[in-house]
Amino acid sequence: MKTLDDVVDAAAEALAGGRRLLVMLDYDGTLAPIAPRPELAIPAPGATRAIDALVQAGGQVVIVSGRGAADVHARLGVDSVDVVGSHGLELWWASGARELVEGAEEARETIAKVEAAWRTLASARPGAVVEQKPFGVALHYRLVERGGEALATRASEIALAQADVRIKSGKCVVEAVPALRWDKGSAARLVLRRAEASAEAGVHAIYVGDDLTDEDAFVALRDRASTVLVAPDDRASEASARVADPAQVVRLIWELAALCDRDQGRLAGLP
């Protein structure tokens, strides 16, 4: 797989040709190290400063997360980024505009039933954590000592007994979401189309993510973007490049900010 330097070199060539930089970033495991509980996941050191520097230098930054948009926005504290939350169902633009994918609002009642059933299931399993989301519910089993996978299987069975629900799996987490034909890949394509519509010389897109749900975006953006997997070792992935961890993601963002800002000279140096 390609490396961080390869991704930066491709961005430098694109910017030299006048293209605009669009950087899409997952949150958990990408900007924030994976935490034992979802509420403990905070941005890696320097992440918010790097994002702000990239935006100030002219890059567009979009956070694409399974978390609710409001949650991500509060954790980053950067008003100048767009946030695509709930696996693409919520679109919060830096301009202040808010959008929901059609059908998301109608699915709340069904998701609430799944949440109630999962809370009952989790109450008998120490370490299991149920996370309520605006348009989904997640069951985290990272802290379950034994039988976590079996718990996830049972939770999936309970959720799929409801109509109009589908299951997403991640790192020690299973999530029930509305059964809409929409995911991170769909959202990433929408973001890219809109960016291209306002960029005369074109857009150079980069998508960075670590989880199984990010594979949807890697596939959707194949041949249209630099796709970067965050993982300590090579693994099967549709991404074209890899960085090791959130610290390297922060480094990548700083490198991109420096590229965008090279002519203005506002960045004195990389941290």
UniProtKB/TrEMBL annotation:
A GO molecular-function descriptor: trehalose-phosphatase activity
A Pfam match: Trehalose_PPase
Metal-binding listed as a keyword: yes
Keywords: Hydrolase, Magnesium, Metal-binding
Keyword Hydrolase: yes
InterPro entries hit by this protein: HAD-like_sf, HAD-SF_hydro_IIB, HAD_sf, OTSB-like, Trehalose_PPase
Protein name listed in UniProt: Trehalose 6-phosphate phosphatase
PANTHER family xrefs: TREHALOSE 6-PHOSPHATE PHOSPHATASE
Pathway: Glycan biosynthesis; trehalose biosynthesis
Job of this protein: Removes the phosphate from trehalose 6-phosphate to produce free trehalose.
Family: Belongs to the trehalose phosphatase family.
Catalytic activity: alpha,alpha-trehalose 6-phosphate + H2O = alpha,alpha-trehalose + phosphate
First-level EC class: hydrolase
Signal peptide: none
The EC number(s) this enzyme carries: 3.1.3.12
Cofactor(s) listed in the protein's UniProt record: Mg(2+)
Species of origin: Lujinxingia sediminis
